[in-house]
Amino acid sequence: MKTDRKEYQREWQRRRRAANPEKELAYKREYRLKNAKRLKAYDRDRGPLYRAKNRIELREYHRLWRLENPERIAGYTRNFRTKFPEKAKAYSAISKAIQRNRLKRQPCQVCGEFPTHAHHEDYSRPLDVDWLCTAHHHSVHRKLLTKSSDTHTQIPSVPPHMNKNLHQPPPVGNNEQTGSAS
After folding, report:
1. Quick check: 116 and 131 in contact, CB under 8 A?
2. Farthest CA pair distance, the chain
3. Do 17 and 78 reside in the same domain of the chain?
């Protein structure tokens, strides 16, 4: 009996939505505005689990979307290249160097895992990169984004040899040598 009622309710809702699509869109917009904070938290919590469970299907979905929308992909690329020309040149230089066997991907400098990303500390030196696995690369960027205004803060999850421009500078004014009394 309950299944018949549920089926009836679903069918009624489907017909109502089909009859008034503008009203349904307005309702959805209003609902999203009222519940934006709750929905955002739900998506944030649910998203990683969903993506982990459906990784293959999502990859295929995105592959097909890219094939069906090449003009949008080209537009995204064009926008990126105009907004960040130095980054685009650095990425291009790394890609070409790998293709021409002038540069070889290395294991992650933190954990030794493959595959790795090329992490640029300075985009003006495009071939000077640190090789990081996906997890460590994301953690470095998260820490860089949330880093305090102090520009000399070290990233704790990355060894000091990778923090080329983030290590503490030597103290100023301590050039006096402490010699032994003779």
Report:
1. yes
2. 102
3. no
